[in-house]
Input
Amino acid sequence: MTAPAAPGSVQLLLPGGWFTACPVGALEPGRGVAVLLPEDAQAALFLDSAGAVHAIGNIDPFTGAAVLSHGLLGSAAGRPYVASPLLKQRFDLATGRCLDDEAASVPAYPARVVG
Amino acid sequence: MDGMDNPTPGAARPAPQPAPAPTIVLVGHGMVGQRFLEALADRGVAGRARVVVLCEEPRPAYDRVHLTSYFSAGARPDDLALVPEGFMARYGIELHLGDPAVAVDRAARTVTARSGLVVRYDTLVLATGSYPFVPPVPGRDAEGCFVYRTIEDLLAIEAYAAGARTGTVVGGGLLGLEAAGALKGLGLRTHVVEFAPRLMPVQVDEGGGKALRRTVEALGVQVHTGVGTQEITAGPDGKVAAMALSDGSELPTDLVVFSAGVRPRDELARACGLPVGERGGIVVDAACRTADPAVYAIGECALAADGRVYGLVAPGYEMAEAAAAGIAGAEASFTGADLSTKLKLLGVDVASFGDAHGAAEGCLDVLYSDPRAGIYRKLVVAPDGTLLGGVLVGDVESYGVLRPLTGTVPPVAPEHLVLPAGAGAPVAFGPAALPDAAVICSCHNVAKGAIRAAVAEQGCTTAAEVGRCTRAGTGCGSCAKVLGQLVDTELAAAGIAVDKGLCRCFAQTRAELYETVLALRITSYRELLDRHGRPEARGGEGCEVCKPTVASILASLAPTIGLSGHVLDAGQAALQDTNDHFLANMQKNGSYSVVPRIPGGEITPEKLIVIGEVARDFGLYTKITGGQRIDLFGARVEQLPRIWARLVAAGFESGHAYGKALRTVKSCVGSAWCRYGVQDSVRMAIDLELRYRGLRSPHKLKSAVSGCARECAEAQSKDFGVIATAAGWNLYVGGNGGATPRHADLLAKDLSDAELVRLIDRFLMFYIRTAERLERTSVWLERIGLDHVRDVVVHDSLGICAELEQLMADHVAGYRDEWADTLDDPERLRRFVSFVNAPDTPDPTVRFVPERGQIKPLLPLTVIS
Output
């Protein structure tokens, strides 16, 4: 986490600072990957079709399964979301809020591509 | 009045017992007879009265109108059956098949059948139909001469045609051309001999006859008009050899079919002293009653109150309704009918309506003729502009609107009604312009006003619902298109906006997107969304509804539109649902299950051992599925390629359990082992499963093949199910298990292997083409109707069967195993990791605990419920 990241790396902002996940080339537009975080936590990292990266928690709060990275991306009112592959609830990629249940949310991590 | 509510004097004659339920005897069980029984049932009479039916033919009522089209499509007699299952039993109707009435004693009110059965009646209904007229030419009894009216006639022709090369039809009318179609369908060189100067002299005029002749001849049928048949000469073996014509020529032929008109079967009525017409036909009044108030006559045997004998089924139906109404004590009358017809003969569309020949004084013809295209249209118009009738040949698109306009002044000039679309001034002219009184469905006499009311007042939103409400469109079906347009217009007028769009991104339905992709050869989701999506969705991310839907359409059409068939290739991978994306089924804890294909449920011991070893080595939970294969649960994504490397090496392929695609074709053990089996169901199941494996569709597809009627494979609960018969295979479609079980419908009977495969090819591709997203075949079939599906895939009513077959041929030729291809491609394999930054680390949240000697997921303690 301390070494300077190579250009083109995708980073997530964690409480301890920017965490380097992978090269942006490892991502496929419109899909996600799972990122193993310190202490066995995990994030779901997405590249949208406009080329922006987004990261939220990978654990689906409705099932407890680490599957959000496997969901399909969509956009509603211009905001990208992911639909859980298990029971299809949608989560806003910028805030982690569930669009189908106000009581549910997942962590949201600011994400960037190192220039 | 001899009604049920007004017992006849006969019932009051001295009787030792209390008066029993009145007895209605129906003589003749053809189309009109059956309709009469249904009308009795509708009016509640069938339950209260004893109803006895005497039928000459060995089978219950069937659809005589479609004899040719059904037979040429390879269907069998039972497919023509008209009697709903259980109908006779439900109403306690006594049906005596093969036992015609031979005498009526009107004084004693009894009917005697050939078997000696004597039935006393309170009401007698004669629906004896007509018989084919055979002109008195010498040699007409030679072996090889036939008539064309019943299934038995057609079966006899079929049997004889096997040893014949040339067939000749005497008579170029409607039925004659039907018969010619049947002969052509049997592979004979076919001639039609017509005494009149043109074909279909009753329905079409000279110009229409010419257009018809050109098209019929182009189909390889030789037409001889303006000549009569003088003699039929037989060879030394007594079989037909040639026909001498009135112009001195001789026509060599192996088989002759007389189709020179029909005559009413009124002999029973004559014999019991009922008045008949000069040229035949039992005289009836407007209520269809004969001179004896206890006796009715309906259909082709009756001489209607307007002095005509009607040989079409629609007027027969009206008479059946009128008679049933009268018997029930209601008022109804039949005073004459519209003789409009629209039909497809030898593939040529012909329609005539109203005063087709311009018999009215001072009337004018408006004509359009395009001999090259075989199109002829004529409208007959009164001097004041009233449309009187017309003839359409080759293109009858406008029939649905023109016929109901007959008798009115159309809202546009007549020339616009005959010109082809695009010629002359463009005219927006559809069923909306029709008056409320215009009859849209002539089979059931439903006017436009009733259809509008069904939408506006009864809440119908589809043509099918309107059909259930009003019966419109449930007869011959020729009004289906106009009906659909009317329903749409009415919905729009009522302000009922039905957004049929697939999702927030596309205003089109799945079926419309399919057509767009196919027609424009669109190969990417992005292109489809940005060019054909809703304006607000263009350039956006799309959504989880349309992405897999479009992915499925692209996969279904991949070989045809020139796209890689692999679902994980560029542009397609990002669209796939999780299951398709990992070629495995995600389970509740995020692990995946693996299902290798086991075609027909048949597996060798060696392969069984491999599955066992793989499951043991990867610690997977194993379970036998309902589709006769084995599901291996509990794999993590990074294990999937290694599991499949072992399976592919042992000869397994993807089972597509993860896809909206063909799942399994289940089978019973069939004739190879089972003492009841009549066909090799396992072989057929394997053949079908291998043919359709990998076929992406709007929803999953399940199938089964049973080797005999015991149906151990449960084929009737499948999307397409096959049951062996002694003569071949019966094909059932639209079955479903699950939450809303549905028994499959019989689509076709006694098919050969090749016929079976061809029909399934068409059926599946038609489903893929027209079904909505996640619409199983059962729901789809209910929505569009079994009759329509049968028309399209069996009778090719839309002319698309060749295309459907080609699409399936493309699929079969383009099939590759997705898992083998994935293992061969490092780019596709890259996604099979739990973590992008720790490819070799298993997902720590995927955990298992033991249960009954295997594993089960260990679920987290806290989740939102």
